[in-house]
């Protein structure tokens, strides 16, 4: 079975006495532990986790700020962070807000709590980062915490040095820490943690060029950090799907398979107790080298959505979107919604012929990969329902509506011929998050038309050292006229509600009960957009490009909208370069700030 009970094995658990954090004068006695029921049904004024809730909607029902008054929005307060580490990908963080307190993870392993109405700091906690840790951090993940999680009376996070730890939310005092992985191994915590039922999971990024164990998703006790289970993202020999690595899986055995990282935060199906998440590309990328032909299902579980039982780590279902030969990285946000499904998009890549349009279904939706194809699956068992493209892509020509099996465009297949070059167009989205709104039953995708890549094989005899085993020979422009192409898609029908063709891409998205979509762009502009029409109703100028999603919350009777800038990833820097912009993108040694907006009090 593709699950290992590893409680107590290779576990370093250190219980740490309480101590005063910087800036803390006395513990706050009125902190209310955050119960599972409160997490399942959040207070509308809180923003409790990555994307706001277990469903990953990126939506808040708050409606004090509306389409009618958003033009009065102004800066309420701001907070400046220390500069990010040189060479990092910026500050990819969503704040957490609970009971009027905002909790922030900074770059360089600092954490702080603030009065959410004013920004006044309550406490700060710093973890030491040595030169050895930074040198061992091969992917510079010190910026990639992406958030924290409060469960009960513990604020849980992970650190660049491979430790999982808990602070007391009222004081910032360290409660416990537990070793997860050796940070020098190439396996490093990446996405924000998420906890459910006393189990916290930590998304990992696994490099394609190290000799560490195969990649995995691991679960720990929220009480003390004890390792509960570990699920490997490549099938173990006792898993029937081991056969998807060829007639003889030993051609590329388990210990040679690399990457397949589950590096973004899972959604949680609370009715079934499932962690639902995506898995990135494998290394090497070319199926022929592993003894397969790339046809569905190929080299599981790369390029897939999987659902695991939160208690045991047992695999409940999987759905593979394609064989990933191009680092398409199918890890982006899985969004859980309930809706009727009656697809009729004019550009469908595949539709299940057995859909009953009269029933409301429990779905997992989203644009899971860089290709920005929009998918809809039944989340009870992973049944394929329909798929359609957004921005231009040339890798997938269609899906079998009954099985969900993909068909790859012949010209996009990466062969084992070192002289074969393929032009791949799939750079249509990145880490910046999409969002869903129950007001419109629409999914909002931050799609763009990035450049196409000319790719080829590096070596016909791959090894761990060759990593993905793929070279990028050149880039060529996308056939699309404009770089930015955000789109609103009706989940039921798959039809486009609106699409904007604009010079600069929109990035991470937030929807609200006031009928607004908030998102920033490459050129420092932060927008409020009408969810129904795509009309820009308000904008302001930030200190740099912000591609992480904003959040919203209430404190002291006011609704606030908060965004970090610059918060850039490689995508923001790449797009700024394409457009000839000099705006700060957040790459490198740049200071970041949190900007918090609200309506005037008078």
List strands and helices in order, with pairings.
Blueprint: E1 13-15, H1 36-40, E2 59-60, E3 74-80, E4 96-98, E5 101-105, E6 110-115, E7 121-126, H2 131-136, E8 149-151, E9 154-158, E10 163-167, E11 174-179, E12 187-189, E13 194-196, E14 199-202, E15 204-206, E16 216-221, E17 227-232, E18 258-259, E19 267-269, E20 274-278, E21 282-283, E22 304-309, E23 315-320, E24 335-340, E25 350-351, E26 360-367, E27 374-378, E28 384-388, E29 396-399, E30 406-408, E31 421-424, E32 435-437, E33 442-445, E34 452-457, E35 470-476, E36 487-490, E37 496-499, E38 506-512, E39 516-521, E40 525-530, E41 536-541, E42 551-555, E43 558-565, H3 570-579, E44 593-598
Parallel strand pairs: 2-38
Antiparallel strand pairs: 1-11, 3-44, 4-5, 5-6, 6-7, 8-9, 9-10, 10-11, 12-15, 13-14, 14-16, 16-17, 18-21, 19-20, 20-22, 22-23, 24-26, 25-28, 26-27, 27-28, 29-30, 31-34, 32-33, 33-36, 34-35, 36-37, 38-39, 39-40, 40-41, 42-43, 43-44
């Amino acid at each position: 079975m593709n699950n290992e009970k590893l409680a107590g094995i290779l576990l370093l658990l250190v219980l740490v006495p309480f101590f005063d954090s910087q800036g803390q004068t006395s513990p706050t006695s009125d902190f209310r532990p955050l119960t599972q029921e409160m997490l399942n049904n959040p207070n509308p004024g809180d923003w409790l986790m990555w994307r706001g809730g277990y469903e990953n909607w990126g939506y808040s029902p708050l409606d004090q700020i509306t389409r009618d008054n958003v033009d009065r929005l102004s800066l309420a307060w701001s907070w400046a962070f220390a500069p990010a580490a040189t060479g990092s990908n910026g500050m990819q963080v969503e704040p957490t807000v609970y009971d009027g307190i905002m909790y922030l993870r900074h770059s360089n392993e600092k954490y702080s709590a603030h009065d959410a109405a004013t920004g006044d700091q309550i406490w700060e906690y710093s973890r030491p980062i040595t030169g050895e840790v930074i040198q061992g951090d091969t992917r510079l993940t010190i910026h990639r915490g992406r958030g924290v999680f409060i469960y009960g009376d513990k604020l849980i996070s992970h650190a660049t040095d491979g430790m999982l730890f808990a602070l007391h939310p009222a004081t910032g005092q360290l409660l416990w820490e537990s070793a997860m992985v050796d940070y020098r191994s190439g396996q490093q915590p990446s996405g924000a943690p998420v906890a459910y039922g006393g189990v916290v999971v930590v998304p990992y990024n696994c490099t394609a060029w190290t000799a560490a164990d195969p990649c995995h998703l691991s679960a720990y006790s929220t009480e003390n950090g004890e390792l509960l289970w570990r699920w490997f993202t490549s099938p173990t020999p006792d898993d029937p799907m081991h056969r998807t690595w060829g007639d003889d899986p030993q051609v590329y055995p388990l210990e040679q398979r690399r990457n397949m990282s589950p590096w973004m935060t899972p959604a949680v199906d609370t009715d079934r107790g499932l962690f639902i998440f995506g898995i990135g590309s494998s290394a090497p990328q070319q199926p022929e080298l592993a003894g397969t032909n790339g046809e569905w299902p190929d080299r599981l579980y790369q390029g897939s959505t999987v659902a695991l039982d939160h208690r045991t780590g047992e695999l409940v279902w999987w759905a593979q979107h394609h064989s990933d030969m191009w680092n398409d990285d199918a890890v982006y946000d899985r969004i859980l919604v309930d809706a009727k499904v009656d697809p009729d998009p004019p550009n469908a890549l595949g539709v299940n012929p057995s859909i009953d349009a009269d029933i409301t279904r429990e779905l997992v939706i989203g644009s899971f990969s860089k290709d920005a194809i929009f998918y809809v699956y039944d989340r009870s068992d992973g049944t394929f329902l329909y798929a359609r493209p957004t921005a231009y892509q040339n890798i997938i020509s269609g899906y079998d509506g009954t099985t969900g099996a993909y068909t790859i465009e012949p010209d996009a297949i990466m062969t084992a011929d070192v002289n074969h070059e393929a032009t791949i167009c799939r750079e249509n989205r990145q880490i910046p998050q999409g969002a869903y709104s129950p007001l419109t039953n629409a999914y909002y995708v931050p799609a763009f038309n990035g450049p196409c890549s000319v790719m080829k094989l590096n070596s016909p005899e791959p090894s761990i050292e060759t990593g993905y085993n793929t070279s990028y020979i050149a880039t060529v422009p996308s056939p699309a006229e404009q770089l930015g192409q955000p789109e609103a898609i009706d989940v039921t029908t798959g039809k486009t509600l609106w699409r904007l063709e604009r010079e600069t891409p929109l990035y991470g998205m937030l929807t609200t009960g006031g009928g607004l979509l908030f998102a920033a762009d490459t050129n420092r502009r932060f927008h409020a957009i009408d969810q129904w029409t795509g009309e820009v109703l308000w904008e302001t100028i930030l200190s740099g490009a912000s591609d992480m999603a904003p959040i919203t919350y209430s404190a002291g009777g006011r609704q606030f909208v908060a965004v970090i800038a610059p918060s850039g990833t490689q995508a923001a820097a790449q797009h700024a370069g394409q457009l000839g912009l000099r705006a700060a993108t957040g790459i490198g040694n740049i200071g970041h700030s949190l900007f918090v907006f609200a309506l005037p009090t008078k």
